[in-house]
Model the fold of this input.
Amino acid sequence: MSPQGRRREYLAPVSLYLPGLPVRATHRLATLLHSCHPEPTLAVTAFVTALAATSGRGPGGVVAVGAAVLAGQLSIGWCNDAVDAGRDTVSGRRDKPIATGALRPRTVAVAAVVALVACVPLSLLSGLAAAAVHLTGVVAGGWAYNLVLKRTPLSPLPYAVGFASLPAFVTLGPPAHAWPAWWAVVTSALLGVGAHWVNALPDIADDLATGVRGLPQRLGPVACRRLALVTMLVAVAVVTVCPPGTAGTPGWVCATAAGGAAVMGTVPRWREGSRWPFRAAIAVAGLAVVQLLSRGSVIA
Done:
């Protein structure tokens, strides 16, 4: 089946309406938001904001964390689509606004730079150390992946470093001003690498055809699926048994549900191009974050 045949058609989310803006401008904004990789952008922002809320941050601090993470994730998502514009067009990515002609690459690139610039002062609201970790470990790592590392065997590295840096961004700010516990860092890094495996799965054939040879593409879909399962299960195990104290019944329920989501996302052979493995990874991450939230006061 051709790439065009297995891609879902892109439909701009025209239901978004902002009073005071012309319909055309509202439509363009909705299309631009569709290009930012909204699922992972919103998931990461929500998870880190929730972690900040349970780690002793006041309301202003929680808002600052959420705004900084959102700006950083928007910049990474838009950068990815701008950089991949040519490959997405060749592959017939009907789910990509640039590939369908709904957006110009320049528009998305400008949005990425604007979000990147906004991310700097927003990150600094959490303090210099926290901002340095967020801007270098998460945001710069994401841009490095988009621009260079995606096509190399080091492609999992930005995911590992970036996700591991997220709890540090929270705890290095007020009130703790301390590095997070090792198990929080390890869990986050493993979740990031697991997300990389499943995110690459639907596009391996198209990536290889357009010259992208990151580690998932070199290993192939079968190995990726197995590595994703193992990585996510280890992450769940670490966050369940390694923190001080006992997980209790709620913790084990979350662990069981997360393990089930990991299995459902990686063991069945989903249709080619399906995003359900990635959504399963988001579910695993969400359940792991619930575990982190239950230990929020002791992650630093």
